[in-house]
Structure formats: C-alpha cells, structure tokens
Amino acid sequence: MQVLAGFSKKESQAMSLIGLAHMLSHMYMLAFAPLAASVMNDLQISAVEYGIALTAFAAVTGIFQTPMGLLVERIGGRPVLILGLLMNSIAFCLISWVAVSYLSFITLMALAGIGNAVFHPADYSLITASVREDRIGRAFSIHTFVGHLGFVAGPLLSAGLEAVVGWRDSIATIGMIGVGVSITLFVFGFVISEGTEIKKVVSVGDCLRQLFTSRPVALFFLFYMLSSMANFGIVQFSVLAFQPLYEMERVVAVVALTVYQIGTMALVLPGGVLADRSSRYDLIIYFGFGISSILLIIIGTGLPPFWLVVILICLAGAMRGGVNASRDVAVRKISTSIPVGTLFAFVSTGFLIGQGLGGGIYGYLYENFAPNYIFYASATFSLLGIGAVMLNNVLSPMP
User: Fold this and answer.
1) What is the CATH number of the domain that holds 382?
2) Residue 1 lies in a domain
C-alpha cells in the first residue's frame, strides 16, 4: 500500500487496521444474502419478514450512527470502533446459537445494527486524523476498496461454509472472525492517530442544529439514502431475482453478485485518484450513476444472454465504484465547524435508512411482481439520487 499509493508507513499501517474493520462490517452486511432461502425455510418466515429483519439491522444502525459520531469526537474513534465491531461480531454468533424464532432473529439483527453504527463515524474521523489532506481522496478510495473486499468475501464465504456446515455454523464462523479482528485492533490500535483538533469544537446542541439546518447536508443525506436503496436491491435480492429471471441455479446467481462486487472494486481506486484531481464531483456522480442505471434496466429485461449479463452487471458495479471517493470528498468539503466524524455519521445514516426502506420495498416487489422489477427499482433509485445531486448543484453550485 505504501509503495503503490505513496502513503507514509504510519499512514499505511493506520489505514490497514481501519480497513480491516471496515472489511468485516461489509462482510456482515452481505453474509446473509446467499443464505436467505435457508434462513426463511429454517425459521419459517416469508420474504417480507426476512426483509423486515434486514430493515431492523439498518434502522437501528441509522438511529445510533449520529450519537456514535458525537461519541467518537469526545472519547476517540479507536475505542468506539473496537467495541462496535465486537458487538456486531458477537450478535452474529448469537444468531447462529440462539435464534430459533423470528423474534429472536430480528432482535439479534437489531443488536448487530448497534455495533454496525460505529464504522462510518469512527473510520472517517480516524482516517482524517491519520492521513495528509492532499491524499485524502485516495485514502477514502482505499478504505472503500477494502470494504468492498468484504462485500465480495461475505457471500462467497457464507455460501461456501453453508454447503459444508449449514447456515448457522456459517454465520457463527464469520462472527468469530470479527471477534479475532476486534482483539487485533485492541492490541495494535496505537498506530492509528486520533487527532485532537476536532474534539469538542462544537457543543452537541450546536452540532445537531447545523446538521439539521444545512441544505447541502440534507441533500447529501438524501443522495446517500437513494443510492443505498439502489444498491440494496442488487446486493440483497439479485440472487433471488436472477434465478427465475434467467432460469439458473443459486450458485450461478451468487457468481453474478460476486462479479458485480468485483466490478465495483475495479474503479474504486482510480476513482480516488480522480477525486483528488477534480472539483466537479457532481459530473462524476451523474456519469457513473447514469450509466449504471441504463445497464441495470437492460439486465432487468431478461433479454440478454447470461454471459452478456455478467459483463453488464460488472460494468454497472464499476460505474458505481468509480463514484464513491468523489461522493465522500464532496461530503467532506461541506464540513465547516461540524466535526468530520459526526458529519459522515449523519449523512451516511441516509445510507442505512435506504437499507431499511429497501428491505420492505424489495421484499414486497419480489413477492408480488416479476423479478425484473428488482433491477428496474434499483435503476430508478439511482436516477433519483442523481436528481438530489442536481438539486444541490442548482441551489449551491460547485466551484
């Protein structure tokens, strides 16, 4: 990392540890995706009920994320990050061991959501304190790239383990990996800089007032929410939708999801270089999300041969991945007296609200409409996200 990206040794060590936790958080988000049918069959629940459990995970994360951001700015990101990852990991272990009813399943998913609430505020605060300003775009892109490794590894690992030990032991194994990473962060976390200049700059009341009254913050919150809803349909429901739409086995559908994630990763790092060299983050978002939407609509028709679908969904993922660093740098640019960790906690709560809404919406679409609508809905939410950025640019033009 140090040689390829030009970071100092200390910066590389800090980003590696932060990225390791980030990778686990993303792994947990998608660990259940290939296990959906097994979970629904074991617990005797419907797709809508399963979607609501995913909603509980996302909604609780959203509720706790901004308070976690305020906590990070006052006691530091390291302890918050370690304890959050540990809680998330233990909750997954408990799902495996004691979730024998829908109530216990959804309760433990909510507990995992509390642990999941720490990653955006802690990670972005720690990266901002640990990396030089002129490398922040690349730092964000590397952070996103490592997170997407978790998106790729999560479904593959859980599906592979399920084939050998069943879905419960699969989830328990993934949970124990997180416990191990939590211990690693506790032992070696001293290499991560906390920073001191951003702590206690504003009172809680003033900080919340600025968050809730800033128009750019509100519109980026909306953009995060809509882009999350767009992505949620692909990562959580494409495996279910691909099977009837293209008449394929589940393992092949998991491959398609994996290709989407690999495509996303392919342009994340180049997107970080672009973010460091450009000030027109809006144009990057228009292009990336626009092309991705068109490709998803084509996939949703069910007309292309599946070999072409694999290429198209890879490209759709790549277009989204290339936008991520520009999105994050654009958010950081609107931070004035609002601490960075708290700002990212707040706007990325839109990401979690999008996940929360997505669970019910996509579950309803899957049960009541043709599988094509999973892809059409994803494309529609991407286009609405472009509209939010356009509105922000009209009201507050970028230089």
Assistant:
1) 1.20.1250.20
2) no
Q: Tens digits of per-residue pLDDT, 185-206?
A: 988 878 787 754 445 555 666 6
- Is 326 a domain residue? yes
d(CA 222, CA 216) in angstroms, rounded, equals 10
**Total structural domains within the chain:** 1
Domain residue limits at 163: 7-395
At 159-190, the pLDDT tens digits run 899 989 999 999 999 999 999 999 999 888 78
d(CA 135, CA 141): 10
Residue 302 lies in a domain: yes
Quick check: 271 pLDDT over 70? yes
Helix-then-strand count for the chain, H and E: 18, 0
b vs e for 60-86, b when ≥16 Cβ sit within 10 Å of the residue's Cβ? bbbbbbbebbbbbbeebbbbbbbbbbb
pLDDT digits (tens, 9 = 90+) for 245-268: 887 777 777 788 888 878 888 887
In a domain, 2, yes or no: no
DSSP class per residue in 180-225 = HHHHHHHHHGGGS---STTTTSS-HHHHHHHHHH-HHHHHHHHHHH
- Going by pLDDT thresholds of 50, 70 and 90, the confidence category of residue 3 is very low
With residues binned 3-state (H G I as helix, E B as strand, rest as coil), the percentages for the chain, rounded to 5, are 85, 0, 15
